[in-house]
Write a structure and sequence with these properties.
261 residues; alpha/beta; 2-enoyl-CoA Hydratase, Chain A, domain 1; Lyase 2-enoyl-coa Hydratase, Chain  A, domain 2; 4-stranded mixed beta sheet; 11 helices; binds ligand T3D
Length: 261
């Protein structure tokens, strides 16, 4: 696929952003290919988790500014670009039925940072960094940045990150709760693959329900969220994987989840 590669593993897929000479800056073909890759993963019953990473020394430097600079800025409708290319991708990842792990192997800037933050479990190499680069070039954080940042790190840090557009280290990102964990550079991919492989052997349909509940909690009051938990727990409780999980516990053996609802 254009500007990305997809590798099959047992139970999961690794999607790699693949324009290393441009720090994997995003192009329209790359964003379309990414969307197709996530849709294909969702449609494949053998695929039970997804790992997203970048090739080379960067994770993703955000929108390819050379491509945007060919537009006439007086008439360019960046809102239309965001609507067509970024918003569907971010919604797709957030609502994806499979767990999505992100291994941030280097700089994650602008929309590249927010693409990473849309994933469920974000690991970053010690040498990686995050920058909400948008204000540096006269733009606002997009790709879900203004939604994710305050929820992840609180209002004060979200404002400073977005308004100052300062780069923060992976260590700082982990300390603030922007990401799940910082990992030594040499260990990043092995650890990311191990987590993704672990997730791929879990009760997949239930993990999808957990994602739905957590996403909805951002908007719901407590009463509404409790009702949603009731409904989703009913669904989880009817799954073969719940029966297997409970049986395995009682029989003191590891569960063998199929991932099906
Ligand atoms: O347009 C819309 O649809 C609106 C949506 C906007 C979403 C956004 O993401 S806006 C934010 C865009 N991103 C940025 O502003 C970040 C720009 N890049 C940088 O500030 C720096 O490159 C980094 C801090 C990320 C890394 O710096 P460094 O020194 O490690 O690397 P470098 O030398 O600057 O970059 C290496 C190459 O990648 C270089 O190419 P060259 O000169 O060797 O041929 C550089 O031009 C290229 N590159 C890096 N980022 C981008 C890029 N090329 C195009 N677009 C980029 N965003």
């Amino acid at each position: 696929m254009t500007d990305i590669s997809v590798a099959e593993r047992t139970g999961y897929r690794v999607i790699t952003l693949n324009r290393p000479d441009k720090l994997n800056a995003t192009t329209a073909p790359m964003l379309r290919a990414l969307r197709a890759a996530f849709e294909n993963a969702a449609d494949d019953r053998a695929c039970r988790a997804v790992l997203l990473t970048g090739a080379g020394r960067g994770f993703c430097a955000g929108q390819d500014l050379a491509a945007v600079n060919t537009l006439d800025t007086a008439t360019a409708d960046l809102g239309a670009l965001v609507e067509e290319l970024y918003n569907p991708l971010i919604l797709l990842i957030r609502r994806h039925p499979l767990p999505v792990v992100c291994a941030v192997n280097g700089i994650a800037a602008g929309a590249g940072a927010n693409l990473a933050l849309a994933c469920d479990i974000v690991l970053a190499a010690r040498s990686a960094s995050f920058v909400q680069a948008f204000a540096r070039i006269g733009l606002i954080p997009d790709a879900g940045g203004t939604w994710a940042l305050p929820r992840l790190v609180g209002d004060a840090r979200a404002r400073a990150l977005a308004l100052l557009a300062e780069k923060i280290s992976a260590e700082q990102a982990a300390a603030w709760g922007l990401i799940w964990r910082m990992v030594e550079d040499a260990a990043l991919m092995a650890e990311a693959e191990a987590i993704t492989a672990h997730l791929a052997a879990q009760p997949t349909a239930t993990l999808g329900l957990i994602k739905r509940a957590l996403l909805a909690s951002a908007e719901n009051d407590l009463e509404t969220q409790l009702a949603l938990e009731r409904d989703l727990q009913r669904e989880a409780g009817r799954s073969g994987d719940y029966a297997e999980g409970a049986r395995a516990f009682l029989e003191k053996r590891p569960p063998r989840f199929t991932g099906r609802a």
